[in-house]
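User: quick one, fold this
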Amino acid sequence: MVIEADGGSRGNPGPAGYGAVVRDPETGEVLAERSASIGTATNNVAEYRGLIAGLEAAAELGAVEVEARMDSKLVVEQMCGRWQIKHPGLRPLAAQAAGLVGRFAAVRFVWVPRERNRHADALANAAMDAAAAGAPAEAAATPPPAATVARATGTDPATTPASWEPRATEEGTRLILVRHGETERTVQKRYSGRGDVPLTERGRAQAAATAARVAELAPSVAAVVSSPLSRCVATAEAVAARIGDPPVRTDDDLIECDFGIWEGRTFAEVRQGWPGELDAWLASTRVAPPQGESFTTVAERTGRAVDRLRSAYPGETVVVVSHVSPIKLVLRDALAAGDAFLHRLYLDTAGVSVLDLYPDGGVAVRLVNDTAHLRNL
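Assistant:
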């Protein structure tokens, strides 16, 4: 596996933090992230702490051979034995790192330019920012997708039963996931989170077309569940009217991510005004926009909503009308994909996705971002 590690201090010594990323060497996919603020320390101490965290994470994932990449020349040279460790405060950390090195068959240390270590650097800065805001110092590791761990380590971790056999007796809960129709903010490509913006005229036409598509996909629907924001409720009501008018129930856990002070702004405006915060947010699902909500938090609540629907409607079909972030996160988890999936999947307004959830924990994704019903709009 590949480890990318970094640390920093605002003052040297000063408020410090570290970040570490473990990647699949073939695909570059993130297997784990570690970050923490460590109080007052020097840059070098923070850098060693980042290396230690990365080695620990790689060991937990079952890595046999590791390439550790850092932009700290000092740490790389000291770990390779080419430079003496003169500072007494670094010797215990170097010894701890060396002990972890002994757990692998081979470890290679590589110096890289800072621009090639941006992910770990962003995690370290996010940890320092979180500490300054009063958040807990330690950040838990990102759990790696089971399929990714199996590919990277050659193991077969225990997950839900895997089989190509058709399920003859088990009836799954089918979720038809619908993104709301167009709004002015989607047209202008602005962050649209908790702001309650209405559908445009075209958005209402999209909702009607989506309702017809849902009626084709599901002759019988047990429930229509929606985010409480009006753009979703209006889309859900259009669907309900087409399929027999079941009542539309709202669920707060299906609401869009809270983008905080980025709400209503374009990506370019955010890049200009908050470049460091944006890099940290793009680098990790645990990082929230200023005064906003992280994707990790969104995933937790959408997961709760999906679990409730699985339990409440066994063997039935439910239409779920939500926003781009919650639907992406549901599909990410259904496909056991990594966080890079969130940046690679595009979901159109009024697009339709379908997944089945089985009683044994199995999941089948049957459709992603179907937009054929919108071709004439």
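User: anything notable?
Assistant: The chain has two domains: 2-153, 173-374.
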